[in-house]
Amino acid sequence: MSALKSREAILFGAIFALVALIATRFPGFVAPGNLVAVFTDTTPLMILAMGQMVVILTRCIDLSVAANLALTGMVCAMINVAAPDLPVAVILVIALVMGSALGAINGILVWKLNIPPIVVTLGTMTIFRGVIFLLTEGKWINAHEMSPTFTGFPRAEFLGMPVLGWIGVVIAIVMMVVMARTTLGRAVYAVGGNPHAAVYTGIDVGKTQFKAFVISGMLAGLTGYLWVARYSVAYVDIAGGFELDVVAACVIGGVSIAGGAGTVVGTLLGALFLGVVKNALPVVDVSPFWQLAISGAAIIIAVAFNAKSGRSKGRVILKSAEHAQ
Amino acid sequence: MKLTKLLASAAVAAGLFAGPASAEDMRIALVVKALGIGFFEAAAKGAEEAAEELGGVEIIYTGPTDTTAEGQIEVINSLIAQNVDAIAISANDTDALVPTLKKAMQRGITVVSWDSGVAEDGRQAHLNPSSNPLIGNMIIKLAADHLPDGGEVAVLSATTTSTNQNVWIEEMNKVMGDYPGIEVVATVYGDDLADKSYREATGLMQSHPDLDAIIAPTSVGIVAAAQAVADAGKIGEVNVTGLGLPSEMAGAIESGASKSFAIWNPIDLGYSATMLAHQLATEAATAEPGAEISIGRMGTITLDDTNAAAMADPFVYDSSNIDDFKDIF
């Protein structure tokens, strides 16, 4: 537990140092308004990363999150075009249900057919994008076709922060409770930590993995609506390649790719770290040719830190011998 | 050499057919990539306009139902069977259509390509919607027109390696001298991703508080930048302009985030392609390098070494005409 705590402390320190470094080059970055903007901008990544974390904890991976986001977002936009008066609450429910359904497809394939998750989600990722193409024939849905309430919801301000940011906060709290205080949350850790032991304690490994995919899909679906509304545009390629950012956020946040280890707070910090880098690079006047290299280096350094701090110490059985060295 | 031979035989053949057909209308086929695409429907409108202006011209608007070269080959074969006078085509494939179009030319049919070209062997002339220097000049002009006292502008491009955008920006920089007082303070890259473009545009407004305009010569970037300006509450301070599609930019024009932007006008393109085909089919002009060909209200075009020509400046869209075009493409 203390090791996990310190891992998050290191990450928190890294983000703080990064922000301080950016402030020396661009003081406006640390203005409260801008920090709120950065947080809000990072919210989609945080929400997706929390879903991805649950999946990775069960020794699986979900590469279809960005495609799920794009498909659900497109369907939400199409519904909005067809029925502009439909309340946002209904759209939110549709997004959650549809995202869950898409996630359940992944889950069923992994659970019932025992196909490796990376293969399943690689397939569904392409299928989801293909379905968008079939639905739209490649056409865009644009700002003027969406209703103002549809696009206005995530950016409406509440206590100084857009609703989008608050949704991230609420989901973070819910996820912390779920992971720490419910049987599902504990089962997820058990399945990832030691599947065989989990079976002996009466946990259905496949079913738990299925549930993890449904959670990931549900959050991806929700983000789909938020994304489309925020950028006021829906087309086949939205959030292209975003699944890799999501996995990176988890890994930076200390979620073990081997499953079983990782926390909600760590994942949030991992996403926030990437979000700060993404938002800072345009303002600190770094050559665009360097940006990709810097983002990549930041990921590797962060993971190296994590790997070092997270390495199990091993049990010292010859104390005197160790002292002698 | 081969081309001139072809042209000669085409001209002879055309002469043979000209006799009996002269009483009837000249039939010009406008072949598009696929039917049902707004852009091409608009081009057909322009072709009809040209036909009306010319008189005695019948437009056959046709194309396959999906954007395949095979589909277009079938369409061309049926046009050859109908013995039309001219074919103006926007090709689905540069090379695949060449043999069929050669056959058409051998039968005395005038063949020109427009919008999306055919390889040199397969057509007599090609009409590009615009040219790189014209586009480069247009994007800076769009920004400068709304900045009579000069100001700071920034470019939001696609990726660092996008050939089109890089050439246009290069051409833009060449003509910067014509726009005194306008200063390009930054060039950033949104990778044609909505979220990255949005973030880059937000960054531009933060690091350059006096920024007056963002030029985005890419359709994803211009939409994202307009949204970023609207969200930052800087409508009226920062004008977003560049190249975009009317259907995608209608919201930004309405909100005022963008005062104007440009893209080729499909109506003008269909009109000009028809005019060009008519000029060549009536032998009022010959397709040879350096030839100056009049294309009605669009002025005159000059064919280059490959018998290709640029139609005109990109067409500017603003609040006065956006409603006419936003449902078209």
Structural overview:
The complex is a heterodimer of chains A (325) and B (329). With 325 residues, chain A is mostly helical. Chain A has helices at 2-25, 32-57, 65-82, 88-112, 117-136, 148-152, 163-181, 183-193, 195-200, 205-231, 242-252, 264-280, 288-310, 319-324; strands spanning 157-158, 161-162. Chain A is built from 14 helices and 2 strands, in the order H-H-H-H-H-H-E-E-H-H-H-H-H-H-H-H. Chain A has a two-stranded antiparallel ribbon. Chain B folds into 2 domains: 2-129 and 266-312, Rossmann fold, CATH 3.40.50; 132-263, Response regulator (Rossmann fold). In chain B, 43% of the residues lie in helices and 20% in strands. A 6-stranded parallel sheet of chain B has the order 2-1-3-4-5-13, sandwiched between helices. The longest helix of chain B is centred in the N-terminal third of the chain and has 20 residues, at 2-21.
State the main characteristics:
heterodimer; A: 325 residues; ABC transporter involved in vitamin B12 uptake, BtuC; 2 strands; globular; B: 329 residues; alpha/beta; Rossmann fold; six-stranded parallel β-sheet; 43% helix; elongated; transmembrane helix (chain A); membrane (chain A); transmembrane (chain A); ABC transporter permease (chain A); transmembrane transporter activity (chain A)
